[in-house]
Design brief:
704 residues; Rossmann fold; Spore Coat Polysaccharide Biosynthesis Protein SpsA, Chain A; ten-stranded mixed β-sheet; globular
C-alpha cells in the first residue's frame, strides 16, 4: 500500500463515541500512509460534535458547508420532507398507530444536512467516504450524495446484529460495499434482503487493533495493579443502557463484599444516563458496594476485559463476543437469558448460563469458568463471527484501495490484436458445467437448436481439474471445437481475451454454465442484429429449471445491485415478453467480434461480473445509443442454476468501477409496464402456485 495513499482524501462520518472505535483505527492507518483524513459530524443536538471534541479529533460540521445561496434548495427539501411525513401520518396504517414525534426543527436540520453533505463532497472531492452504517439519516444521506457524485462509500457493522431482520433493511443500499465482521452476519443480512455480493466479511477493526495492543502493552498486569486487584479473581459485570433492578445481582455483590480474594467491576453502557446510574448504585446497600468498582466511561472497555478473569453478562451486549475473542470465559445470568432468542451465546455453547446465586457461589469457590466452555464450539463460533482477529484493518484498507483504483479506471483501450476475416457466422463460448449429465444435455441442445442459421464453431472453457466422467465426454467430441483449460472456480475472462485472435466467428455468443439454447434462438439473434444494427449487444429470455424467469434483461434494484427484471415470475409474464433496451444483460450475450475487441474485451478484474461489466463499458463508450437490447424471442433454459462465487476483489472492482452508474432502475421498469406493488405480489403468488419442472426435450412452455 506504500505510496498509494499519498494525497488521497478520505472523509469519515462519526456519531457516538463507542461507535467510532470501529472507524478511527482505519483512519489512523490511512493517515499514517499519507492520506488526508477528515471527520465530519451532523447536528443531532450537538452530541456528535461533543464526541469529536472528546476524542480530540480534527473535525468539520456539515453546516460549515452551507451558505446563504443554499437557502432556496434547503427550503425545497424541507417542504418535501414535511409533506412526506404528513402523508405518512395520514395514510400509513402502521406509522399512524404510533407516530414518531418529528418537529419542524428536526425536519429543517435534515434538509440543511442533506444540502451540506452534497456541498461537502463537491468541495472536498474525496476519493472515498466512510461511515459505520447507513441505517440512520446521516449515514443514508451521506451514502446517497456520494453515489450521486460517483464517490465510493463504504460502511461497516455496528454490533452483533441480532435484531429482527427488517430492522436492517437498506443496510447496503447506497454503499459501494458493506464490510462486516464474519460470515454469520453476512448470511443473516442476505437471508432477508441484502445483496450477497456487496457484503464482505473482513473482521472487527477495533478488536483486531485492541487484541494486539493489549498484549504488547501488558495491559492486564498494569490495570490489575492500578485497581489493586492483582492477586484476586476478578469478575467483570457488563450492563446495558436500560438497567435492570440491582436486586437481581445481590448475590454477586454479597460475594464480593464477603471474600477478600474476589474483585468485582461493574461496567455501565456508555449510553446509560448518569442520573439513572447514580440512582441504581444508591439502591445497593452501602456495605455491599464498598469493594465494587462502578465504571461508566472512565475506563476503556477492553482494558477491563483484559483485567478480568471472567466476564458476566447481566444483559445483552456486543462485548460478549469481544470477551470471547479476548479468551475470557463468559457467563450469561439466567435473568438475562431468553430461550430461543434470535441470538444467544448460551444456545451457541460459548457462554455458561447461571443464576446470580449459582455464579456467586462458584466464583467464591475459585472455579475456573473456562473449563465449562467447549473449546471446539468456541473456536467454531469465533470463525463464524470474526473472520479475522488480526488483520481486519489491513483487510479494510486493501479493499478501500481496490475500490478507489476501480473507480478511477480509465476507459478501456481496444484489444491490441489483428483480427483475420471471419470464416464462421458464430463462435459459441461455452463455460463447461461441472456436472457431466448437464453438460451432455447442454451439448445436445446446442447441436439440435443451432442448425440452419449460419455456420458456427464452439469454444469450451473447461475446468483444468475435472472429473473423469466429464473428461471422457469432452474427449469424445468432434467437429469444429476448441478446448481451453481454466483454473477451478475462475471466470475465464483472461482466457477468452487471449483466444480472440484465433476465433473464426463474426459474432461471439457467450453461454453460461448449464445454459441450454432452445429452438429458434439463433433465428432470434439474426433478427435482432438485422433490426437493431450490428453494433449492439443482445441478450435473451432465460427460464429457470422450475419454469420461472431467470433472466429478462438486467435492472438495478433498491439496493443498487444488478438483478434480472421480473426474476422468479412466470416465464410467460407479460413484462418479460417485451423487446427493449436495458442497461445490462447477462448469462447469454451476443455481439460482433470487432465490437468485443473495440471495448477492450472482458475485464479480468470483474470476475463473474464480466458480462455485466462489458455491457456497462458499451454504454460508457457512447458509440451507439441503447447499445444493449433484450430479445424475448431468444429463448434459453438453465438446466441447473449456476453457482457464481464472488470473491472480494471481484466485488471491489465491479461496484467500485460502476458505483455512479448502478442507480436503481427497477421501479422505473415497473412504472413503464404500469405495474403496482400489488400486481407484482399477485404475480409472485401465481408463479409460486404454477411452479413446474420442464419435461424432457427442454421445452418449458416459454412461448407467448
Amino acid at each position: 500500500m506504500s505510496g498509494f495513499w499519498k494525497n488521497k482524501t478520505v472523509i469519515a462520518y462519526i456519531a457516538l463515541e463507542h461507535h467510532t472505535r470501529f472507524i478511527i483505527p482505519v483512519m489512523e492507518r490511512l493517515s499514517s500512509q499519507g492520506a488526508r483524513v477528515k471527520y465530519v459530524v451532523g447536528q443531532a443536538e450537538r452530541s456528535q460534535e461533543v464526541t469529536a471534541i472528546g476524542l480530540g479529533l480534527d473535525y468539520v460540521h456539515i453546516f460549515d458547508y452551507l451558505s446563504q445561496g443554499d437557502l432556496p434548495k434547503i427550503q425545497n427539501h424541507y417542504h418535501r420532507l414535511r409533506q412526506t411525513f404528513a402523508n405518512s401520518l395520514k395514510n400509513d396504517f402502521l406509522f399512524s398507530l404510533q407516530p414518531a414525534t418529528v418537529t419542524d426543527k428536526t425536519l429543517h436540520s435534515t434538509a440543511m444536512e442533506f444540502t451540506g453533505l452534497e456541498n461537502l463532497i463537491r468541495m472536498e472531492s474525496p476519493d472515498l467516504c466512510f461511515a459505520l452504517h447507513e441505517l440512520n439519516r446521516w449515514g443514508k444521506m451521506f451514502a446517497f450524495q456520494a453515489k450521486q457524485m460517483n464517490v465510493p462509500f463504504i460502511t461497516l457493522q455496528e454490533g452483533l446484529t441480532y435484531g429482527l431482520d427488517f430492522g436492517y433493511s437498506g443496510h447496503a443500499q447506497y454503499s459501494t460495499l458493506n464490510l462486516v465482521w464474519g460470515e454469520r452476519v453476512k448470511n443473516k443480512m442476505v437471508s432477508f434482503e441484502a445483496p450477497a455480493s456487496k457484503i464482505i466479511p473482513v473482521g472487527n477493526t477495533h478488536l483486531a487493533r485492541e487484541i494486539t495492543f493489549q498484549a504488547q502493552q501488558d495491559i492486564r498486569k498494569r490495570k490489575r495493579q492500578e485497581f489493586n486487584l492483582a492477586p484476586k479473581q476478578v469478575a467483570l459485570l457488563i450492563l446495558s443502557s436500560i438497567l435492570p433492578p440491582p436486586d437481581l445481582f445481590m448475590p454477586i455483590f454479597n460475594a464480593a463484599a464477603e471474600h477478600d480474594a474476589l474483585g468485582l467491576i461493574v461496567k455501565f453502557h456508555p449510553a446509560c444516563k448518569k442520573p439513572q446510574m447514580d440512582q441504581w448504585i444508591e439502591a445497593i446497600p452501602e456495605n455491599r458496594r464498598g469493594r465494587v468498582m462502578f465504571l461508566h466511561t472512565q475506563q476503556n472497555m477492553y482494558d477491563l476485559i483484559s483485567a478480568a478473569d471472567v466476564c458476566v453478562l447481566g444483559q445483552r451486549s456486543t462485548t460478549g463476543l469481544e470477551s470471547i475473542a479476548f479468551g475470557k470465559p463468559l457467563v450469561k445470568l439466567a435473568s438475562a437469558y431468553t430461550p430461543d432468542a434470535p441470538y444467544s451465546f448460551v444456545d451457541q455453547g460459548v457462554a455458561v448460563k447461571m443464576d446470580a446465586k449459582a455464579f456467586a457461589d462458584a466464583w467464591a469457590a475459585g472455579t475456573d469458568f473456562s473449563t465449562m466452555i467447549d473449546p471446539i464450539r468456541r473456536d467454531l463460533f469465533l470463525k463464524q463471527e470474526l473472520i479475522d482477529t488480526e488483520n481486519a484493518i489491513e483487510n479494510v484498507c486493501t479493499l478501500f484501495q481496490s475500490v478507489i483504483q476501480a473507480n478511477t479506471t480509465p476507459k478501456p483501450k481496444a484489444l491490441d490484436i489483428e483480427l483475420a476475416g471471419p470464416e464462421k457466422k458464430w463462435s459459441f463460448l461455452v463455460q463447461v458445467s461441472d456436472n457431466p449429465d448437464i453438460f451432455l444435455a447442454q451439448l445436445e441442445a446446442i447441436a439440435m437448436n443451432s442448425e440452419g442459421h449460419g455456420s458456427y464453431e464452439t469454444l469450451f472453457f473447461e475446468p483444468r481439474d475435472m472429473a473423469p466422467e466429464l473428461s471422457r465426454v469432452l474427449d469424445s467430441l468432434t467437429g469444429d471445437i476448441k478446448r481451453i483449460p481454466v483454473a477451478p472456480g475462475a471466470f475465464p475472462a483472461e482466457m477468452i481475451n487471449a483466444s480472440i485472435p484465433d476465433i473464426n466467428g463474426a459474432h461471439l455468443v457467450f453461454l453460461e454454465k448449464n445454459l441450454a439454447p432452445l429452438k429458434g434462438w439463433l433465428k432470434g439473434l439474426n433478427q435482432g442484429f438485422s433490426t437493431h444494427g450490428n453494433g449492439k449487444i443482445l441478450g435473451g429470455r432465460i427460464c429457470s429449471p422450475d419454469g420461472h424467469v431467470a433472466h429478462a434483461g438486467m435492472v438495478v434494484d433498491h439496493n443498487n445491485t444488478p438483478v434480472s427484471a421480473y426474476l422468479d415470475l412466470d416465464i410467460r409474464f407479460q413484462g418479460a415478453l417485451k423487446e427493449r433496451p436495458f442497461q445490462m444483460v447477462d448469462y447469454c450475450l451476443a455481439l460482433p467480434r470487432e465490437q468485443f475487441a473495440a471495448l477492450g474485451g472482458l475485464s479480468v478484474q470483474a470476475g463473474p461480473f464480466s458480462l455485466l461489466d462489458l455491457c456497462l463499458k458499451a454504454t460508457e463508450n457512447g458509440m451507439v445509443s441503447d447499445p444493449v437490447i433484450y430479445l424475448p424471442d431468444v429463448e434459453l433454459i438453465f438446466l441447473e442454476r449456476p453457482k457464481r462465487e464472488v470473491m472480494p476483489p471481484d466485488a471491489a472492482y465491479f461496484y467500485g468501477r460502476w458505483h455512479g452508474r448502478l442507480i436503481e432502475s427497477q421501479s422505473r421498469l415497473h412504472e413503464a409496464d404500469c405495474l403496482t406493488l400489488q400486481d407484482l405480489a399477485q404475480a409472485k403468488q401465481e408463479a409460486a402456485a404454477k411452479s413446474i419442472r420442464p419435461a424432457a426435450g427442454l421445452s418449458p412452455g416459454m412461448g407467448r
